[in-house]
Amino acid sequence: MVKRYRSWEREEPAREWEALNVLAAYAPGLAPAPLRAALDATPPSVTMSRLPGSPLRGERTTEEQVAALADALVRLREAVPAGVVSSLRPAAWNPAGAVAKARVSVSRLPSGPWDDPVVRKAYAHGAAWLAGADPDELLADPLPPVLGQADGNRANYLWDAHERRIRLLDWEDSGRSDRAFELGDLLEHVSRLDGDLDAARLLDLIALTRRERARVLGFRRLIAFTWFLMLGPGGPFAARNPAGTRERQAVRVLELLGRPGT
């Protein structure tokens, strides 16, 4: 399969080629195998193996699929040596960038029209949380970095029904990352609205410490509120989703902030 890039200002082709080679060396079979790269071409391209399977996006995941996803994520974390991870460039989508993006989005978003009371409350509580100390505290990672995809779209996770395993696609924004951020992005990417994934079960299977769970929750709040803002008036995704998406996302933000039903 040949992947040609429409943009490469974030060094997408080089990031993908680098990640695929690292994974081929330390976790073969977890991602497509790298075959050839034309990084200096216009447009640049990466040739990789084609993987079997169907994406998790749009699906109600089974217990077996959740267990396979946990296995894939644990393997990704444990297989790549710390020294190799440390040598990678930082992921294009990262905690500092996410906090900054959310705060810029709040500053640019009009105060109305918020015609739904749940949407108004989600905005008020989310903006108050974002203005507090919690988001900044998330930027100090107490754990060693990991190789991360930096893209939680569930279309990037393939279920192979024959081998009963999950494989990972799309490494164009990848790099050195924070595992709690990666998990938060996976669990709260807007693609979650297309299906259902038992987040609590996944986190149990990954066996997080109490401190890690708290950081994952913080990032889930950040990512969920960021998507809420992007679905709001003037947001880049406002016109690209079905009616009611913003309201559903508002409910999610309130749930994660511990304010269900408000």
Output the keywords.
8 strands, single chain, 47% helix, mainly alpha, 10 helices, Aminoglycoside 3'-phosphotransferase, Chain: A, domain 2, three-stranded antiparallel sheet, 262 residues
Your description of this structure?
Helix 2 (63-79) crosses helix 8, helix 4 packs parallel to helix 9 and helix 5 packs across helix 9. The mean pLDDT is 93. 38% of the residues are buried. The longest helix is centred in the C-terminal third of the chain and has 21 residues, at 210-230. The chain has 10 helices and 8 strands. The strands form 3 sheets. Strands 1-3-2 form a 3-stranded antiparallel β-sheet, with helices on one face. It has one domain: Alpha-Beta Complex (Aminoglycoside 3'-phosphotransferase, Chain: A, domain 2), CATH 3.90.1200. With 262 residues, it is mainly alpha-helical. It is globular. It holds the Pfam family APH. Keywords: Membrane, Transferase, Transmembrane, Transmembrane helix. The chain crosses the membrane at residues 219-239. It comes from Nonomuraea mesophila.
Q: Which helices and strands, and how do they pair?
A:
Layout: E1 2-4, H1 12-26, E2 34-38, E3 45-48, E4 54-55, H2 63-79, H3 82-87, H4 95-108, H5 117-131, H6 134-137, E5 146-148, E6 157-160, E7 165-168, E8 175-177, H7 179-188, H8 199-206, H9 210-230, H10 245-256
Antiparallel strand pairs: 1-3, 2-3, 4-6, 5-8, 6-7
Keywords: Membrane, Transferase, Transmembrane, Transmembrane helix
Transmembrane segments: 219-239
GO molecular function, one term: transferase activity
